[in-house]
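Researcher: Next sequence.
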Amino acid sequence: MGKKDTKTIVIQKFPKPVREDYDYFKQQLSKSPFVKEVTASMETPPSQIMDGANFEIIGQKEDDNNTSIYKKSIYINSVDDTYFDFYDLKILFGEDFPNYTKDQDFDSYIINETAMKYLGYENPEDIVGISFKLRHGFIDFKDGKIIGVVNDFYYSSLHHQIEPMVYFQRPEFYYSFFINIDSTKVQESVKQIEQIWDEVYPSYPFAYSFSDQIYNQAYINEYTQTKLSAGFSIIAIIISFTGLIGLTTIMTNRRKKEIGIRKVLGSSMTNIVRNLSMEFFQMIFIASVIAFFISFYIMNNWLQNFVYRISLTENLGVLLIIFIGLATSVMSIVALMAYYSARKNPINCLRDE
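Model: Next structure:
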């Protein structure tokens, strides 16, 4: 979510006076050559949306009681009129938000695709333009209309499914500001934005973060698990290969006399290598099968943490190729060690015994 070649500065957790002067702050930022776009919203991606409200579709009955007020609730998010363009989100049908004024006597609503289906509609053309109103105990919503349907996008992390969402405009609920800057001029941009902030909000310190840092924090457990898994996997592979080479060496040394006798009796190099390797190949095959099913079980359980995930059964071919590749590598090492032992002079092998 977002545009290329830009870096997003996020300012959040500020008091009410800061929200009240957002329009002026935005106006001052727009004069800066380092600032590309500015927007605001109630929630900061990829945080999970927690706010919801009941809703009313004027003229539509919920049940046989002839009431149009739904008992169900829907997730809500207050956003600036530049929000969807800021994040390069597509309005599938309808129009984007108009400029908001405090004295307007109506509310405009934009919903996502999931909300459209949640409300019982299949096509954006059918729902855009209907009379709609949110009902909330602490927000005085006005009668309005659904003016557009925006495409579904991953607002929260991939641990959560895309929820039905209604977007509306109320600057008093802009708890987060977002500023797009040129990714090649980060230091200069931050410095000028801080100057503008100090001019507009002299009583409040300038505190910011970058959106990529926030997203990284949302997946910190996955990053940590990936690094640990990769590190331990490399260590395990090194130990396994070292142990395999040592075990192969010990086994071939124990069978030096057998190798010498077979060569004296005319056994071919191929037969000797096959006899030396077969026992290892059987163990490798059994170990690979056990490891495959254990790995499949662990990976499948880990993927259950994500609502949107790949199917391991559909990618079974890829997993098999990986395991076959690893098994082939191990077998190749065993075969090389066996070939090296089979090349030795049988006289020396028998003399050593």
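Model: Residues 119 and 127 are 9 Å apart (CA to CA). The radius of gyration is 33 Å.
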